[in-house]
Design goal:
Elements (H helix, E strand, L loop, with lengths): L26 H8 L1 H26 L5 H18 L6 H14 L9 H13 L2 H28 L9 H83 L4 H30 L17 H10 L4 E6 L6 H21 L6 E8 L2 E8 L13 H11 L4 E6 L5 E8 L4 H5 L1
Parallel strand pairs: 1-2
Antiparallel strand pairs: 2-3, 3-5, 4-5
Length: 427
């Protein structure tokens, strides 16, 4: 496969690394594009040297204007040649020098309008079409005045007329100026159009990368929430059961052994969920990863039973029609899991922990209440659990409340809109 080479004035690598532009056609064009100063210097030299030679030859063969006017003409030729070196950055300066050169050269054998032609072209290419047409209008006026001034001067000085009359000379100048302007407008518009296309392509590549980064950040946040729920729930249950086993090992070895078996079961479950989440990250190559589906509402009774075995007196109440959306079921499951995990962590003395899942119209309410006094425990949390729950609830345009109840104990209550899409929830 042939490799596409890039144009000399465009980078080989851009945002994203995939926006590759073809090289400009022609070796000569690429060479001059790499050496703009050399090109401008050659143009200035090709103008100044032949013009001065023609003027010297004409001065030796026919009568010329006074010395001061001749010196002024030479000075304007030099100024126009110097302005040609800056035609890309200062096209207006070149056009002004061309006007002056044309007016000063009127008494000579021929009008010097070459700098005006270069100035009109440069103005159209490096500035704007509007500037080029304004420059053309002024140049036409300057050229016409110069043509009539040349005829008047040679008549007044009783010199032999050279070339066509004033009108013919003016028309010729206007035609050449118009041609130069049209060429410049065509080249300039094409150049600006290509620059706009390239800039747009860069913007699209940058937006693509930003969207990819946002998607990656969103996925990292989702995985972080899942991993927190898995690790927090599993370790909390294991720590609670292990502490209970240690406390009862001396007086009831059988009960302690049963508690430790529950610890092992909780660890296996947490390890299995972690393998499944890590399998998503490692991709299909990890064939040993568990590919079981995400937990749903049907898994909530088993979740509650696991907390009962850990010593938490949980009662589950559900009402309303069945919820079928998988993502919403996972969110409800994680809300119940986090609420019970916090209760197990901070409400050891709770006599009742009530879990209620209700659906009415397009709103689902999840409530986890306990009647214990919450105090600091040996298990320290970082607050990531509630933050993750708020992110989950916000995706469904819902609300989350967590705090003490008026009648004592703690309440975690979330409301979700079943008809809300992810984008609606974010907005």
């Amino acid at each position: 496969m042939t490799e596409v080479r890039l144009a000399p004035d465009h980078p080989a690598a851009v945002v994203g690394g995939e926006l590759r532009l073809p090289k400009a056609p022609g070796v000569i064009r690429r060479f001059w594009a790499r050496h703009p100063r050399l090109a401008d210097g050659l143009i200035a030299g090709l103008y100044v040297v032949p013009t001065l030679l023609v003027w010297v030859v004409a001065a030796s063969t026919q009568a010329q204007p006074p010395l001061w006017l001749t010196l002024a003409h030479v000075a304007t030729i030099g100024a126009a040649g110097a302005a040609l070196l800056f035609r890309r950055s200062r096209p207006r300066l070149l056009l002004a020098a061309g006007w002056l050169t044309c007016l000063v050269s009127a008494p000579s054998a021929a009008l010097d309008a070459v700098p005006i032609l270069f100035g009109l072209y440069a103005l159209a290419v490096y500035r704007s079409t509007r500037s080029a047409w304004i420059g053309l209008a002024i140049s036409v006026a300057v050229g016409t005045v110069s043509a009539y001034l040349s005829t008047w001067y040679r008549t007044a000085a009783e010199l032999e007329p050279i070339g066509a009359d004033s009108s013919g000379t003016a028309v010729g100048l206007v035609v050449f100026m118009l041609i130069a302007t049209l060429i410049g407008v065509t080249v300039g518009n094409r150049r600006r159009y290509l620059d706009a296309l390239i800039a747009r392509a860069h913007d699209l590549a940058r937006e693509r990368d930003q969207q990819a980064q946002l998607a990656a950040a969103t996925e990292r946040a989702r995985i972080a929430r899942e991993m927190h729920d898995i690790v927090s729930h599993g370790l909390t249950v294991m720590i609670t059961l292990a502490e209970g086993s240690a406390a009862t090992a001396a007086r009831d070895p059988d009960r302690a052994a049963e508690a430790m078996r529950h610890v092992a079961d909780a660890g296996r479950d947490a390890l299995g969920e972690m393998r499944r989440m890590l399998g998503v990250l490692t991709g299909p190559a990890d064939a040993a990863a568990d590919r079981s589906p995400q937990p749903d509402i049907a898994a909530i009774p088993g979740l509650v039973e696991g907390f009962r075995e850990a010593g938490l007196p949980v009662r589950l109440t559900t009402s309303g029609p069945a919820i079928t959306e998988p993502a919403l079921q996972l969110t409800i499951y994680r809300l119940v899991q986090e609420g019970l995990t916090n209760a197990l962590r901070h409400a050891h003395a709770a006599r009742h922990v009530d879990v209620t899942v209700e659906q009415h119209d397009d709103v689902v309410s999840i409530t986890v209440d306990d009647d214990a006094t919450h105090s600091a425990s040996g298990i320290i949390g970082a607050g990531r659990g509630l933050a993750g729950l708020r992110e989950r609830v916000a995706l469904y345009g819902g609300t989350l409340e967590a705090g003490p109840r008026a009648q004592g104990g703690w309440r975690l209550r979330a409301t979700l809109r079943t008809g809300a899409t992810l984008s609606e929830g974010i907005e």
